[in-house]
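Figure caption, in words: inputs first, then the predicted bound structure.
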Amino acid sequence: MSRNALLATINELVEFSSVAIPVRFDGEVARVSPLVPSTIGELTIPRVLEVPWCTQQGLTSAIGSFAVVRSFGNCNVTFISTGKGTVSLDDWRLFAAAAVKGAGKTSVAFLLDIDDITNFRSVAQSLGEGALLSSYRYKVADAIDTVFAVVPLSSTLPPVAVHDDLEVGLRDGVVVADAVNWAKCLIDTPAGYLPPKEFAKIAESRLEFDAHVRVNVWNEGKIKDERLGGLLGVSQGSEEPPRLIYATYDPRPKDKLPHVVLVGKGVTFDSGGLSLKSGEGMMTMKTDMTGAAVVLSVLSAASRLNIPVKVTAITPVTENLPSGTATKPGDVLTIRNNMTIEVLNTDAEGRLILADGLSLAVEAKPDAIIDVATLTGAQAVALGDEIGALFSTSNELAEDLLKASGESGEAFCRLPLFDAYESHIESDVADMKNIGKPGKAGSISAALILRRFVGDENWAHLDIAGPGRSDAARGYRTKGATAFGARTILSYLTDLASSASVD
Ligand code: BES
Ligand code: MN
Ligand code: ZN
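Bound structure (zinc ion present):
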């Protein structure tokens, strides 16, 4: 897993198939750090590059633009732009993605002037993330065997601690990206290959080897015994039985670590049910289990990173299909916590299964609950495909998540749980109906439905219908599944561990 992340020295550079050199645009010229060796193999590395030459090569002040200068033997030297000003963590992810693109080979060394940075560990982690995330291709996610190395350059002999930080950071970055790529692979898998029981099997087969993790998969009988009426209602149109994955990571059961419960929407295919979607609307609906894949990948990475926080992941998993046995518009479902929902549109199914998941989350009495779901088309209309919607009952939790979002480079925007819109979900026959007013604040009415199931808990809801998949590759984001939200939650958990100072 972290076999492909390491530190290397200048003497080893020629062994790499690609060497990535940062270039900073500074007025009329582009500069290479004076610490970069003046020759690599037979190639002389200039300190200053003429901007017209750079422009001609496609190397501009746009961060991540690059020029492959020359290959000698087996090795490419790639100049990569770090722009004009300060370099953020997300810029380092873009840098690493450019290096991978420029390399097209099997091992990449990043030359890093460490006199220029202070946050060694996070920078190295970002390099690992950007490199491995951008290397993802559906089907070959497990086979990424590229070696990524950081080569630290310094004018003084850097303390051992700096080397340790770089090494740990790079290794953590690879662990994070490996978990995210695993989620992306599940999400990209065709629904025909991934009915709920298969999804649960794959999740179990990864998590059962992660340290301090216990996984329980509930079958249909157990789901009935536990009265998960939302999940049963959505699944009843399908021949495939539902599952619920209940996984816990608790590295120190005696210490009462902060406890976060994650709930993920796991609809392995959303046809809309009897309120059938259009052909076009269904085309991407194999990705409707993104929330489930995201929270399970977070739990796995939390274990592999050894984060001192207790994490529980709860994912209801089902298909949403029409048939003679399907839930009909007008039917009423009774959720785990005994609240009732009138189903007026069977395509608003995510909230029905999340209602059960959130009810279970509350019973665990955690410090915070976060759910992740490709919940509403309205979310994509409001914020497009690069920004997720964040709703929260707690200003503190919302701020913590927005801070984490800044670190991860996954953009989130907070939307209101607007009390007056409660009127949109009132039902004549049940505690609520499952849809709001047509064409009006659809993401908010969905969030208000979910809020009914979390009581007074610290709760955040991430609606990632838009950014959950991308139509095109950009930077370190690959086309298709993005597993959006996973790295934000991981950052949040890491921050939570350090603020609770449970080391
Ligand atoms: N899974 C969809 C939401 C979705 C749409 C995700 C597009 C990603 C891309 C969800 O189950 C759904 O169908 N929501 C309906 C709700 C409506 C019927 C109230 C929607 O948004 O149209
Ligand atoms: Mn739907
Ligand atoms: Zn759905």
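The pocket of manganese (II) ion (ligand 2) is lined by residues 270, 272, 347, 349 (CB under 6 Å).
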